Amino acid sequence: MQDLPIELYRVNQVKTFDSIAIEEFGIAGYELMTRAGLFILNTIKENYPDCRNWAVFCGGGNNGGDGYVVARLALEAGMNVSVYPVVDGATLKGDAGLAFEAYTFAGGTCKPFTPDCAVTEDLIVDALLGSGLDRPVTGSYEKAIEAINNSSCPVIAADIPSGLNADTGKVMGAAVKADYTVSLVGLKQGLFTGDAADFCGTILFSDLDIPHQVYERQACSARRLMRVPFVKRSRCAHKGKNGHVLIVGGDYGFSGAARLAAEAALRTGAGLVSVATRPEHAWTLNLDRPEIMCHGISDAYQLSERIKQASVIVLGPGLGSQLWGRSLFDAVLQSDKPIVLDADGLNFLSRATIHRDNWVLTPHPGEASRLLTASIAAIEADRFYAASEMQKAYGGLVVLKGAGSLVANAKDIAISPTGNPGMATGGMGDVLSGVIGGLIAQGFSLQESAEQGVYIHGLAADLAAQAGGERGLLARDLMPYLRRLVN
Predict the structure, then answer these.
(1) Where would I find the H helices in 216-338?
(2) Are 400 and 368 in contact (CB under 8 A)?
(3) Cα gap 109→86, rounded to integer Å
(4) Residue 1 has what pLDDT?
(5) Which one has a higher pLDDT value, 230 or 292?
(6) pTM of the predicted protein model
(7) So what's the pLDDT on residue 117?
(8) Helix (H, G, I), strand (E, B), or coil: what is residue 35?
């Protein structure tokens, strides 16, 4: 599989790259379109060499122009090509118009698209709507997307699956489900989070041989997270040098959340892990993991000594919403220790106005909606904006969990490419908070801990899913893989 760049961009940035390449480096727009078409053609030939009958769906803009270039090149390569235009190609202007004329000059013809037409070809190229889409898909475009999705043949999307918002990863009413997405000029940030995982398939990229100087003009809008190997430990290391994680949580009925976070911190390499929990849970919580130190805490006063001994505090797993949990929440926030705030801790935070730099918040969309006083739909409509707004409001690092988890700091956003649907089960967030806490305890910065914690948490789940499948994946199944990944 192709190694993709880590830099991601918004649509307006990619348009700027196009303009600079054309106006300052003298690369004609039609030349870029031709390079795009050739890359898409070669992608199809490499991955679907036996497909000889191609259907190309073309829209009215430059994305449609890319489609006409692909159709012409495929025709010249001996393929049987059917073009289904949603907009009359003869009305196209600029480079798209040139692409249509070149296709017809090469002997290509078009089949009028009708909503009831059945696609009988054995491969589809989606060149309906490009990355500039900013409103819901309707009319003939919606019907064309429906026809593509109703077919049983492979689909290759030019630049982005039609109907997917390139900035947010949100489906704009309807979107093409592609097997391959060939992103061009700059990788769009919306391809890696939100709804995108269900629509993009395998993502490939070409910069169309645009000079690297073009990309130096703008900083990327987001980054793809990459795994960073951890340095080997000193041969003289002892448990005191590897930090002490304090897990605060485990109200009645929720002791398992604290237990999972504690083991995750141990498996990630923390030297010591303590759990401050309900007295009724303290004697049972570590029966099968005696390395966890458990302390029965009835009130905030009893917590003070545990806080003093901790290097980092993971606050929230199973904390509950009662007075006991609230008192522990208030006690922890009076300390200056680094904090990983999760679950019920985030719900308490949503009722306060607290900003601090030395914590990591790990909300899922429901918790984020409470933190921002917005609907879950609004959070998911633009996850980048939501993560940035939470970071501005509360400080520190913010991990917005979900498909394509985001890690936002004060300057930029990173996206994790790891994880799978099997993680949609109870306890996964508790494991993540323990992983991040375990890394902080060992001396990694909050940003390193949040970013690498999210990455290896998702990768551990991917490895566990490969071993036994996504359905039935348990949070505890990640533990042996976490240990392997931090070594």
Answers:
(1) 255-268, 279-282, 300-309, 323-333
(2) yes
(3) 14
(4) 63
(5) 292
(6) 0.95
(7) 80
(8) helix
